[in-house]
Amino acid sequence: MLRVTDPQAMAKTFAEAYMESARWQLERQANDVKRNKDALSGLGSLLTTFRDKQRELVAGGSMIQNTVTQSNDAFASVATTSGAKPGSYQFHVEQLATTHQLTIDVPSGIPAADAGSVKIKLADGSEFTVDLTAAKGEDGNVSAEELARVINSSSGASGNVHAAVIGGQLMLTSANTGADSKISFEIDSTSPLAGAFDGAVTISEAQNAKVKIGDPTNGKTIELQGNTLDSIEGLSITFRQVGSGTITVASDKEKTTESVKAFIDAYNELIDKLAELTRVGDAAKGDPGGPFSSDAGVRALVSQLRSELNKSVDGVKLYELGIDTDKKGKLVLDEKRFEQAFKASPDRFDKLFGDAQTGLVGNLGKALDGWLNEKNGQLKTRNESVAQAEKQLLAKQQEYDRRYQDVFERYTQEFTRLQVLQLQMDNTLDQIKNLFSTSKD
């Protein structure tokens, strides 16, 4: 006979047994939702990483990597940007662009209250007014230090003129180089500082850079406000010294090969991981397979990516450049054929790979966008479905908790009544035993 000693403990055991099937189904659904959510997160990271890698391949507007060399490394600094083309460029710098610098001897003993104001003007038309009465030292007189402070704090000074005190003299320096940065002053002749500003001494002229492109004798001369030349597509050249120099841009096979290898590695890693995600399981062995083993959408993505690799772009195919596909659909680089193709016609590489919007990279990007698009991509749609499933799962969990509590309370009441009944029966049995015991005596 079942003996009730702890109604709540027994109620818990019976309630769990009663709800076991519902609990198992809920746990299975929760595991499925979590597995799907984790798989989507992993897939998103995987696709994003590959998209970034292929964009890096053509980040400069070309998949061909260039090397820049100079006849004199001290002559200029060169940065390559999108569109740089192989070629050799000869320059002769007649003069560098410089800032305008001048010094002013500030006389002593001039009361700030009498100083008035000065308008500081630049050749490009910029100007600002400085209140000289604010340049008051502790003795009430104008000082070079106070003038520098007042000029630098004036509205309009920033980005135009900077003032400092060097060797007791006030020095003004234009913020920019070139003839347009020439500084001049407009001050009332009655100001006690008029003579100081009118007598300013130039120690560095405001001048443009003069650069001759091509032959030093017959080349074309251009003037620049600064020392940086940006008019050659893909190059930003900052001249450092007067003189002649040659800058050469050449295709770099080694760097280009490394970039292509990085692309191949990224693609092969993508294919390997997609294969694992779509791996078919073995029910007999308890192997569920990959989380997308029966997902037609993911398998279609794999097929689409492989299809793009086999397409011809502007009459060029991957295998013609020494990049083959093996039996597993992974890319393999034949370096000998790659080098031959590179030497014969490097422009074919750009035709095939294109940029972020065109060619192979652009086409692969469009395929990935079908999944990664933040507005209507498959990942967004699927993650929304997961979020809805989690919401439904939460509602089911709450319903399960409510039902479990009802069952637990019902069993608790029943076992409590049974315990009371058993105690009453025990008491009655004891009384009967005592009665028979008394009769014998």
From TrEMBL:
Keywords assigned: Bacterial flagellum, Cell projection, Cilium, Coiled coil, Flagellum, Secreted
Location of the Flagellar hook-associated protein 2 C-terminal domain: 206-426
Recorded GO CC terms: bacterial-type flagellum filament cap; bacterial-type flagellum hook; extracellular region
Source organism, top-level taxon: Bacteria
Limits of the Flagellar hook-associated protein 2 N-terminal domain: 6-100
Entry keyword Secreted: yes
Coiled-coil residues: 372-399
A biological-process GO annotation: bacterial-type flagellum-dependent cell motility
Similarity section: Belongs to the FliD family.
Function in brief: Required for morphogenesis and for the elongation of the flagellar filament by facilitating polymerization of the flagellin monomers at the tip of growing filament. Forms a capping structure, which prevents flagellin subunits (transported through the central channel of the flagellum) from leaking out without polymerization at the distal end.
Subunit text: Homopentamer.
Protein name: Flagellar hook-associated protein 2
Natural source organism: Burkholderia pseudomallei
